[in-house]
């Protein structure tokens, strides 16, 4: 990925992560105004979804993906994909449940045991999401993912011909220079 394009993309990703962190930190201050809190929750869910879309688009841009080795990308970024999906699901579930309980009466105590457990799980998943997502975004800046290289050829031969690392030396003549 070109350095100017990567800088813009990483800036957008970090901005969306900061927005998500802001909503997680301060959304309860707006519990007295249902519409404001609802808008914040919608913005947060859209930001998470945009971050997932951006990382998928970054996958598409790699040489590894274009060479047909999608499995390598999925393997390398499996934790990020899983944590992002779980965090999005927990966020939507918490937002829907909290707004459903709170909408009719903003002064009522709505923190049921289930909502509190979901709140804690969503916040803990948020910490994991911030870590894994930022790590994946920075790892996708690796120039080896955007050009042909020896490790990519080895991975290609391993996946296409069913070779393991022990037999790889025997097919060295198939190098693509």
From TrEMBL:
Pfam families: TMEM138 (PF14935). It comes from the Eukaryota. Keywords: Cell projection, Cilium, Cilium biogenesis/degradation, Glycoprotein, Membrane, Transmembrane, Transmembrane helix, Vacuole. It is found in: Cell projection, Cilium; Vacuole membrane. InterPro entries: TM_138. It is a multi-pass membrane protein. The chain crosses the membrane at residues 7-26, 38-65, 77-97, 109-132. GO terms for cellular component: cilium; vacuolar membrane. One of its GO terms (biological process) is cilium assembly. Belongs to the TMEM138 family. PANTHER family: TRANSMEMBRANE PROTEIN 138. Required for ciliogenesis. This is Transmembrane protein 138. It comes from Eptatretus burgeri (Inshore hagfish).
């Amino acid at each position: 990925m070109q350095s100017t394009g990567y800088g813009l993309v990483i800036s957008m990703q970090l901005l969306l992560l900061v927005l998500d962190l802001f909503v997680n930190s301060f959304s309860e201050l707006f519990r007295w105004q249902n519409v404001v809190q609802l808008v914040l929750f919608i913005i947060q869910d859209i930001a998470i979804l945009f971050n997932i879309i951006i990382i998928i688009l970054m996958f598409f841009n790699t040489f590894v993906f274009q060479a047909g080795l999608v499995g390598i990308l999925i393997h390398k970024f499996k934790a990020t994909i899983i944590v992002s999906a779980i965090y999005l699901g927990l966020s939507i579930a918490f937002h829907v449940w909290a707004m459903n309980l709170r909408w009719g009466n903003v002064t009522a105590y709505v923190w049921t045991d289930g909502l509190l457990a979901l709140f804690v799980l969503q916040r803990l998943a948020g910490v994991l999401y911030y870590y894994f997502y930022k790590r994946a975004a920075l790892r996708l800046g690796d120039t080896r993912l955007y050009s042909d290289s020896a490790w990519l050829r080895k991975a290609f031969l391993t996946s296409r011909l069913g070779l393991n690392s022990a037999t790889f030396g025997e097919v060295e003549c198939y190098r693509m220079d």
